[in-house]
Specification:
Distance between the termini: 46 Å
CATH architecture of the largest domain: 3-Layer(aba) Sandwich
Structural class: alpha/beta
Shape: globular
Mean pLDDT: 83
Order of helices and strands: HHEHEHEEHEHEHHHHHE
Radius of gyration: 21 Å
Number of helices: 11
Number of strands: 7
Length: 296
């Protein structure tokens, strides 16, 4: 029986388009340190600095031959996995995306001697009994936000070795979320920060490190917002005007489509073309953290 093709999620589409349009090797925001000019041409540098920040948190590989096994949960394009493999770590990945999984596996062709597994599933469906106590480290790089916490911690207890660790680099909702001010809910995703701190109290994990890196990530929001408002939106207005003047039937169909999907399209316009997706709004409603949790 032919395998049913999975539908591409809108989040995945956005990430892949960014990669294809701007030749990005990663699907995260990047780390914009003060010495790095905010420019689309520096985005790959910012992303690599983000990767290096995560790599610096991994336990060192000693010369005694001990293997360190890492599980990269929501491994994106596989670029971070490849960099870990280059450094001598043993890495498995979790990828819920069919298209991204294919790309990852192509990249793994550069490591013919490696035994990396890529599990094509949501973390909620990960076969933790099959991989019980197999990993020294689990990494969530902008992927923790998509997984219900009640699934995360339960599975992680089965997967992580004693004295192992969890690295989370992701954003969370601040207490301002839902206050109704301009820009509220223009950014989706993220668990509430206070809820995370409450949930972790009932697990065998302790927070060893908790760095607020919001100000180093939020410039990327400004970069994308400028691109949307100053490039993409004016171009769409020009194209719309051209279609209206030259192809009235197509313009009629576009208007009809807008009427049919009015609520959804207005939501998209509010999120992406209202000007609210700014650095300041992001910093109000989100807190971006680099955290290391240690198994007690």
């Amino acid at each position: 029986m032919k395998k049913k093709k999975k539908k591409m999620h809108s989040r995945e589409l956005g990430l892949i388009l960014l990669e294809q349009l701007f030749d990005m090797e990663d699907l995260h925001y990047g780390l914009w340190e003060k010495d790095l000019e905010l420019s689309i041409f520096n985005a790959k540098i910012a992303q690599q600095r983000y990767n290096e920040m995560i790599l610096s948190t991994l336990p060192s590989i000693n010369n005694e031959g001990a293997e360190i096994h890492v599980l990269d949960i929501g491994c994106g394009t596989g670029n971070l996995m490849a960099q870990m493999l280059d450094k001598g770590y043993y890495v498995d990945g979790v990828s819920p995306s069919e298209s991204l999984t294919k790309r990852i596996k192509r990249g793994l062709g550069n490591y013919p001697e490696n035994k990396t597994n890529v599990f094509e599933c949501k973390f909620q469906n990960f076969p933790d009994e099959q991989c019980k106590k197999q990993y020294d480290v689990a990494i969530f790089s902008e992927s923790f936000q998509y997984i219900p916490m009640q699934y995360s911690f339960g599975k992680l207890q089965n997967l992580i070795k004693p004295e192992g660790s969890i690295i989370i680099c992701d954003f969370f909702k601040t207490e301002a979320h839902g206050d109704g001010q301009k820009g509220d809910r223009s950014f989706g995703g993220g668990h509430r920060m206070s809820k995370f701190y409450a949930e972790i109290q009932d697990t065998p994990f302790t927070i060893q490190r908790d760095d607020d890196i919001t100000s180093l990530v939020s410039p990327n929001i400004q970069l994308v917002n400028d691109l949307l408002m100053n490039k993409i939106y004016p171009a769409s207005v020009t194209l719309d005007s051209y279609v209206k003047d030259n192809y009235s039937f197509i313009y009629f169909l576009r208007k009809l489509t807008f009427c049919l999907f009015k609520k959804k399209l207005r939501k998209i316009k509010y999120k992406y073309f209202s000007g609210y997706r700014s650095k300041e709004v992001f910093e109000r409603y989100k807190t971006y953290r680099l955290m290391i949790l240690k198994y007690k």
